[in-house]
């Protein structure tokens, strides 16, 4: 597979330049759909049946389509065939016009441009691996599903239901974000829960009768200290009071305040533990006459480090050694579509794209010398996982 991946490198770079030249920010549906058109055409050529799922009408003006492609193999599940999900995203964090301002360029072997690493390089790595399998007529699997989402960079608000429903019934998931800078795969991602804490006090004239008021801003300030002090109490847990809003005028004792709090943890149990701690803290306001209400706004489950994902990692490391690579695995606090897949109970391995870095910045880069080996590794891993008889 490595010689085949090396032969593909010039075409890969040409394709990468083409996709990077398309502005496909999360809120640019026309650009995202141009990428989807291109990917869909490539998948048709590889024998995949494709489906485009438009966003709900409420998001039609701001979100692109989700693309799902399926190709059956020659082994049914009863014969040892496995269903494998490949997941990548088509959107970037950049505004329209960025591709013209910072066009694709090669500085030696390092590629630059908006989205070159996150995630157009990984998206193309998946297509290149499928091309190798297609050309070699390797189809010892039950089914391969390729999922390309339009809004990963903003939390997948329109594609999350599609991601979760697509993951059902699969055996393995391989997420195509690019590898860490040292080549590591990603074995775990923290989950995220967002909370809104509403503090209700009592208004009063701040100069004439402040004693009749109950200052919600003061209660919110004390609560912020309590919540920030939850950091360090548990391993792999972070708590951040990111937004505080309070009051309207300086001459009124503040009667209302709002805190927005983000919790990240490596396990779902950790998120629940911190949620309970937040609720307990809210019951004990330090300012008489104030009340604190807690609302959990959202939950993105962690991509947990499990025995099943570790077995996938062991297969990947075996295939990597055959290619002369020594790869490890790491955990990250960042959230991606892999979290939603893992939340369905499916084992996931992430970071299977080429090596890149400086995501979301003008310095974003991709090391093109890593492309052939990483594409060959991905193709070999798909072939290995697809056949349970191996």
TrEMBL record:
InterPro entries, per the entry: ArgE/DapE_CS (IPR001261), Bact_exopeptidase_dim_dom (IPR036264), Pept_M20_glutamate_carboxypep (IPR017150), Peptidase_M20 (IPR002933), Peptidase_M20_dimer (IPR011650), Peptidase_M20A (IPR050072)
What GO MF annotations does this protein's record show?
hydrolase activity; metal ion binding
Q: Which residues form the active site?
A: 91, 152
Q: Which domain of life is it from?
A: Bacteria
Gene3D superfamilies documented for this protein: 3.30.70.360, Zn peptidases (3.40.630.10)
- What are the record keywords, sorted? Hydrolase, Metal-binding, Zinc
A single Pfam family it belongs to is M20_dimer
Its cofactor is:
Zn(2+)
Q: Where is the Peptidase M20 dimerisation domain?
A: 187-285
Q: What is this protein called?
A: Peptidase M20 dimerisation domain-containing protein
Organism of origin: Streptomyces roseus
Q: What is the lineage of its organism?
A: Bacteria, Bacillati, Actinomycetota, Actinomycetes, Kitasatosporales
């Amino acid at each position: 597979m490595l010689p085949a991946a090396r032969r593909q490198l010039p075409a890969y770079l040409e394709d990468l330049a083409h996709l990077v030249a398309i502005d496909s920010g999360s809120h640019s549906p026309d650009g995202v759909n141009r990428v989807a058109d291109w990917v869909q055409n490539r998948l048709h050529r590889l024998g995949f049946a494709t489906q485009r799922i438009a966003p709900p009408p409420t998001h039609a003006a701001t979100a692109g389509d989700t693309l799902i492609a399926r190709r059956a193999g020659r082994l049914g599940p009863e014969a040892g065939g496995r269903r494998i999900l490949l997941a990548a995203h088509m959107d970037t964090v950049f505004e329209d016009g960025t591709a013209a301002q910072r066009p694709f360029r090669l500085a030696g072997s390092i590629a630059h441009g908006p989205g070159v690493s996150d995630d157009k390089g990984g998206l193309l790595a998946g297509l290149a691996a499928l091309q190798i399998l297609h050309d070699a007529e390797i189809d010892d699997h039950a089914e391969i599903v390729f999922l390309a989402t339009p809004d990963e960079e903003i939390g997948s608000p329109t594609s999350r239901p599609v991601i979760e429903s697509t993951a059902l019934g699969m055996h393995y998931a391989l997420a195509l974000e690019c590898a860490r800078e040292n080549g590591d795969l990603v074995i775990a991602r923290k989950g995220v829960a967002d909370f809104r804490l509403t503090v209700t006090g009592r208004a009063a004239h701040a100069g004439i009768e402040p004693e009749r008021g109950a200052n919600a801003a003061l209660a919110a300030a004390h609560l912020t200290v309590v919540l920030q002090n939850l950091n360090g109490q548990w391993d792999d847990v972070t708590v951040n009071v990111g937004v505080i809003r309070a009051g309207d005028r300086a001459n009124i004792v503040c009667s209302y305040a709002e805190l927005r709090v983000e919790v990240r943890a490596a396990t779902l149990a950790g998120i629940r533990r911190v949620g309970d701690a937040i609720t307990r803290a809210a019951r004990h306001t330090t300012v008489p006459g104030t009340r604190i209400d807690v609302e959990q706004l959202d939950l993105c489950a962690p991509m947990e480090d499990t025995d099943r994902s570790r077995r996938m990692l062991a297969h990947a490391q075996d295939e990597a050694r055959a290619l002369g690579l020594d790869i490890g695995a790491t955990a990250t606090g960042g959230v991606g579509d892999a979290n939603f897949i893992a939340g369905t109970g499916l084992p996931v391995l992430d970071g299977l794209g080429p090596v890149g870095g400086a995501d979301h910045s003008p310095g974003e880069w991709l090391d093109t010398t890593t492309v052939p080996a990483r594409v060959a590794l991905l193709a070999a891993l798909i072939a290995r996982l697809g056949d349970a008889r191996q």
